[in-house]
Amino acid sequence: MGAESNGKKRAYEDPYKHCGLATRAIHSGQEPDPATGAIMTPIYQTSTYVQEAPDVHKGFDYARTNHPTRLALERNIAALENGKYGLCFGSGSAAASAVVQSLNQGDHVVSCNDLYGGTYRMFTKVYERFGVSFSFVDASDIGAIDKAITPKTKLLWIETPSNPLLKLCDIRAVAKLAKERGVKLCVDNTFATPVLQQPLEMGADIVAHSTTKYIGGHSDVVGGAVVTNDEEIYEKLKFLQNATGAVPGPMDCFLVLRGTKTLPLRMERHSANALQIARKLLEHPEVACVNYPGLPTHPQYDLAKAQMRLAGGMISFELKGDLDRAVRFLKSCKVFSLAESLGGVESLLGHPATMTHASIPREERLKAGLTDGLIRLSVGIEDEKDLMADLERAIAKSLDPKAGAAA
Question: How far apart are CA 374 and CA 289, in angstroms?
Fold first, then answer.
């Protein structure tokens, strides 16, 4: 697997770095198995490795520290992000946690206020207890970010597109500000994936992913990753990965590697389906608003065209009426499944206020624009006409107060 001698870091030279993204997705970091010639990276189901002598080995000594299946995945994801160094974790939350763990007591973080509820919970309920402070601002406003930076600020954390309002941050502008103010920028790229945008190319210092979502793509594995071009950042995060041990198992890595191979194809289909559905929802007389960066009505449509290759597979919208109507709609869908998470081949829908973002206090949600009636769609790769027909049926049913009980 091209291991690093005795576990020491050696920059990986990707033989496919000049190839297109689809080629890198299939081949980067994944040489045929040297023992058997297997074209698929094996699941090395081992916790330890035999050494020739003390500290003399083939680059692997203990699976928490280094693992060949994980190494292949780390190199593959780094290649997709045009990054030098990749690290994989047991979940997206573990990846985010490692980034915050690289800070010190007394440090300050400026974060977007429209972000995944689990990240908000981690920031405020875990790391604030250890002396790291956080400010949450509308990160689509570069002035708001600049105003929130203090002498203690060490990190800017943004999601773009954001979860669940699909707001965009101008990555180039935020990266420029970060460098001017002497802070690091981490971009959670889970919604877009490296297929749609590559933040490192736009000046970000770190990219974070929940590989549970689009990168894995099949709703059957939990994982996370960070990618960077900065060797000092990599060394800190590599130390934390080993020291805290929140690493994925070999089967998890194998499943995510399987997902990366079809990621470019899937993102094209997710994006194409979502664009058609967003257009039709926008025209629907019972829909109050639609949030989708691929629509000209999106306030940052021009930024989306400049920053993203396609607008992605996530939509959020509100129906006309009250919260009870939104609940009736959610219970009436059949092809869209009501479930946590996103990014799988199947279409999912959710209610952020009571599901993915319930850990954010209601007053904070409302301040960020996340209303109780907001519905989030993760548009899958099914036939678009079947998905839209399902939404139209559910919208119609939601008009009837008895529909929720009957669904």
Answer: 9
